[in-house]
UniProtKB/TrEMBL annotation:
SMART domains: DnaJ
GO biological process, one term: protein folding
Zinc finger (CR-type): 144-226
Organism: Salinomyces thailandicus
MF-aspect GO terms: Hsp70 protein binding; unfolded protein binding; zinc ion binding
A Pfam short name: DnaJ_C
Name the record gives this protein: Uncharacterized protein
Top-level division of the source organism's lineage: Eukaryota
InterPro entries linked to this entry: DnaJ_C, DnaJ_domain, DNJA1/2-like, HSP40/DnaJ_pept-bd, HSP_DnaJ_Cys-rich_dom, HSP_DnaJ_Cys-rich_dom_sf, J_dom_sf
Signal peptide: 1-19
Span of domain CR-type: 144-226
Length: 404
């Protein structure tokens, strides 16, 4: 009689396993992900779904618990091996079979990973803000692009989880009795004493000491590590804009990590090897939402017209410049092409663009051949006989003569 219920339960096991979401999927990593990738995923997701950042949202709170559970299993070699072989049911049996207290409190895990008390704010001391400067080409300010960058920062030692001890044990400091501070008296004069509070020199103000220091951090509880970040450069974002990565500054068991602030600057223009990097737009100059370009014309083109140019913009589209025959371009003329400038950053009414300013520079020949010189002189002499007043054409005010 017991055979049928047993067979039914065995048939339901695969369905129960499928009902629970895959731990790798929860963290968004591949099954062959290394420890560093798993830690990075937990770092990002646990901050995003922390209940303190999403008060009152039960769905987010549940997701935070799932992320913590997934990291708890995949961060340890033994439980990860069991999960890879037997799935959720194997982990459940392992937890019931001989690991008392194996499941960690999500906030306790967050506290060990980031320092502090497992919560954002809440009176916890905050670490310093880190600032870095990153330069990107003008093209990325125009089109928008994601950039990966690395920085070296202070991180809590993963070997000892920030305890500084090889065995995870810390003993109360005998000198300060766990206070971290010492009261010292100093005699200033007969019968006059001064009390000073000083940091304990035995424990360094921590209130506890270790007998066997961690071989990785040498008891310092923190290490220097290189960490990767992804920076999203939005279309039209201003030069000098500051992008904040919350709680991504230096980590410490003694305080909540501060922010990492990235300040954006424009990289000096240069011709790259890729086709997208070899455009006229690479050498545009930017001021706010406007772009500037200097176009060089020969004397013949400026005087007689009948020319055309194709400017390749930052995203590859072509801006056509031209003048009809007989259309004169004066040196220093600025042509404004509307809508061909920088995108307006976060424009509320949809995409909008500034203007492209074209300044025309006329290059005169160093010398002329005799035949060309005669032709030009004859043309000039004919034009001068029309009694053209160059003073009026230049726009200068007429000189005032003193009556005396």
């Amino acid at each position: 009689m017991l055979l049928f219920p047993t067979l039914a339960f065995l048939c339901l096991l695969p369905l129960l396993a499928l009902a629970a979401e895959d731990f790798y999927k929860i963290l968004g990593v591949a099954k062959d992900a290394d420890d560093r990738q798993i830690k990075k995923a937990y770092r990002t997701l646990s901050k995003k779904y922390h209940p303190d950042k999403n008060p009152g949202d039960e769905t987010v709170a549940q997701r935070f618990v799932e992320i913590s559970e997934a990291y708890d299993v995949l961060s340890e070699d033994e439980t990860r091996r069991i999960y890879d072989q037997h799935g959720h049911e194997g982990i459940k049996q392992h937890q019931q079979g001989g690991r008392p207290g194996a499941r960690h409190d999500p906030f306790d895990m967050f506290s060990r990973f980031f320092g502090g008390g497992g919560h954002f704010g809440g009176g916890q001391r905050r670490g310093p803000t880190m600032e870095v400067r990153i330069s990107v080409p003008l093209r990325d300010f125009y089109t928008g692009k994601d950039h990966d960058f690395k920085i070296e920062k202070q991180a809590i030692c993963s070997k000892c989880e920030g305890s500084g001890s090889k065995d995870g044990q810390r003993d109360t400091c005998r000198k300060c009795n766990g206070q971290g501070m010492m009261i010292q008296k100093q005699q200033l004069a007969p019968g006059i004493f001064q009390q000073m509070q000083m940091q304990c020199d035995m424990c360094g103000g921590r209130g506890s000491t270790v007998k066997h220091a961690c071989p990785v951090c040498q008891g310092a509880r923190v290490v220097r590590e290189e960490e990767s970040f992804e920076l999203s450069v939005e279309k039209g974002i201003p030069v000098g804009a500051r992008v904040t990565f919350e709680n991504e500054g230096d980590d410490s068991p003694d305080y909540v990590a501060g922010d990492l602030v990235v300040q954006l600057f424009e990289k000096e223009p240069e011709l790259g090897s890729e086709e997208s990097e070899r455009t006229d737009g690479t050498f545009f100059r930017r001021k706010d939402t406007n772009l500037f370009w200097r176009e060089v014309l020969s004397l013949r083109e400026a005087w007689m017209g009948d020319w055309s140019r194709n400017l390749t913009h930052l995203d590859g589209h072509v801006v056509h410049l031209h003048r009809e025959r007989g259309h004169v371009v004066q040196p220093g003329t600025v042509e404004v092409i509307h809508g061909e400038g920088m995108p307006v950053w976060r424009h509320e009414d949809g995409p909008d663009f500034g203007n492209l300013h074209i300044e025309y520079v006329v290059v005169l020949p160093d010398q002329m051949e005799s035949g060309m010189e005669k032709d030009f002189w004859a043309t000039w002499d004919k034009w001068k006989k029309k009694r053209v007043d160059l003073g009026k054409l230049s726009g200068r005010p007429e000189p005032k003569h003193d009556e005396l």
